[in-house]
Design goal:
Layout: H1 2-16, E1 29-31, H2 34-42, E2 49-51, E3 69-70, E4 73-74, H3 76-82, E5 86-90, H4 96-104, E6 109-112, H5 117-131, H6 134-154, E7 161-167, E8 172-175, H7 180-187, E9 190-192, E10 201-204, H8 206-212, E11 216-220, H9 225-233, H10 239-243, E12 246-249, H11 251-255, H12 261-284
Parallel strand pairs: 1-2, 1-5, 5-6, 7-9, 7-11, 11-12
Antiparallel strand pairs: 3-4, 7-8, 8-10
Helix pairs in contact: 5-6
């Protein structure tokens, strides 16, 4: 009963707040996905953040802020308690019905989409416009674009390598070309062997894995490295298994569309370089006695 009373008191306060104009720089910002908090901070608005979503952990200062629930389940009471004058929703993740409920409570909610490497620079500039931090945001966007262009030039002529990103093992899932992770792999010379999947992610059977013949597998550090190794040990004829090309990557650097994705690019390109060396070493090994083709 007390919790319901508290909610309605907060609602009454929210409804009496003056509506923020579209032009007024936001002073109290709430974000509904971890990468949105990263974009706000990168655009010069970290001091404006008053609340973030669950799992927001970069920069470290945002871990001290109130959390509003997960990206797909927003705590409306927690949002109202922080009295934000701007709520930034994830265009590819925040449920529209949740946004509609926030808007009915009188809150200004905006959508932000950043789902490709190129879109991150534009997202920084958009956030800077909302917060009135255009100068800082423009500098961040320019720095990001220069770094991205440099990485593309550096890895433009990399030898192709058959790659995939693995999630779990029972069953194993992977991602299609629709995922930003696939774009990162491509920049580093990786050919996503499951690019043509009809959905952004899907479970893959062992026969399909063998048929795809990946030469390198990336996986998130939150996964069990032992389980990943055991999975590929059972598929010992796959090129990736013969070369031992299994690499753990910080998933936050690949799964969050923020400037830190370029650190993810560097990590993936380094992994692919090592994988190519291992593949070359495997090819140089002498053929086992009795293993000649018939």
């Amino acid at each position: 009963m007390r919790s319901h009373l508290k909610f309605f008191l907060l609602l009454a306060v929210a409804l009496t707040m003056p509506a923020a104009s579209a032009e007024a720089p936001a002073q109290r910002v709430a974000t509904l996905a971890p990468h949105l908090a990263e974009l706000v901070c990168a655009a010069g608005g970290c001091a404006r953040l008053v609340a973030v979503s669950e799992y927001s952990n970069y920069p470290a200062s945002v871990t001290q802020l109130p959390q509003l629930g997960g990206a797909w389940s927003i705590n409306l009471e927690a949002v109202l308690a922080q009295r934000p004058d701007l709520v930034i929703a994830w265009a590819d993740g925040t449920p529209p019905d949740q946004v509609a409920r926030l808007q009915k409570l009188g809150l200004r909610v905006v959508w932000l989409r950043a789902n490709t490497l190129d879109s991150i620079g534009a997202a920084l500039e958009t956030v800077g416009g909302w917060l009135g931090t255009q100068e800082a945001a423009a500098a961040a966007a320019n720095d990001y674009r220069q770094r991205l262009a440099g990485l593309r030039a550096q890895h433009r002529d990399e030898p192709a390598i058959r790659a995939m990103y693995q999630i779990e093992t029972s069953p194993a899932y992977t991602i299609s070309a629709a995922s930003p992770i696939s774009e990162v792999m491509s920049l580093c010379g990786g050919v996503n062997v499951f690019a043509a999947l009809p959905t952004i992610s899907a479970a893959i059977g062992q026969e399909a894995m063998l048929a795809a013949a990946p030469e390198v597998v990336l996986y998130g550090r939150e996964e069990s490295a032992a389980a990943i190794r055991a999975y590929w040990a059972r598929l010992g004829s796959a090129p990736v298994a013969r070369a031992g090309n299994l690499y753990a990557i910080d998933p936050d650097l690949l799964g969050r569309a923020s400037p830190r994705m370029l650190d993810g690019v560097i990590a993936v390109c380094a992994a692919f370089d090592q994988a190519r060396s291992r593949l070359a070493e495997v090819r140089r090994r002498p053929t086992e006695p009795g293993a000649a083709a018939h």
